[in-house]
Amino acid sequence: MDQVTILPPMPGACPVCAAEHDPAWPHNRDSLYYQMHFYQKHGRFPTWADAMAHCGPEMKDAWRAELLKKGVDPAQLEEHGQERLDGV
User: Fold this and answer.
1) What is d(CA 64, CA 85) in angstroms, rounded to the nearest whole number?
2) Maximum CA extent, the chain
């Protein structure tokens, strides 16, 4: 496969991750649309920290706690040591 075309988000969906979510919530880190566009821009796939970068502290804390309950690798939740990607 040499080329893949990903369609734009549906009307009303998040323009960053193509999922339907409240703007205060994290982007859908598992969205193929988000992963491909993030990779094109940053040369790596997004972490949960990237998906939550635009969220407020309370939202980040709530999502971190729930993701840890689901067994997500804590490194996926840390913003330290990586480029700050607010608004991505």
Assistant:
1) 17
2) 42
**What is the C-alpha to C-alpha distance for residues 13 and 20, in angstroms, rounded to an integer?**
5
Token duo for residue 21: 């979510």
Instruction: Give the pLDDT confidence score for residue 84 in this predicted structure.
Output: 45
Judged on CB neighbours under 10 Å (0-12, 13-18, 19+), 21 is: middle
CA-CA distance, 53 to 8, in Å (whole number)? Answer: 22
Task: Walk along the chain (88 residues) in steps of 10 and give the mean pLDDT of each run.
Answer: 82 96 95 94 93 94 92 80 46
**DSSP secondary structure, 20-49, as one string:** ---TTSPP-TT-HHHHHHHHHHHSSPPPHH
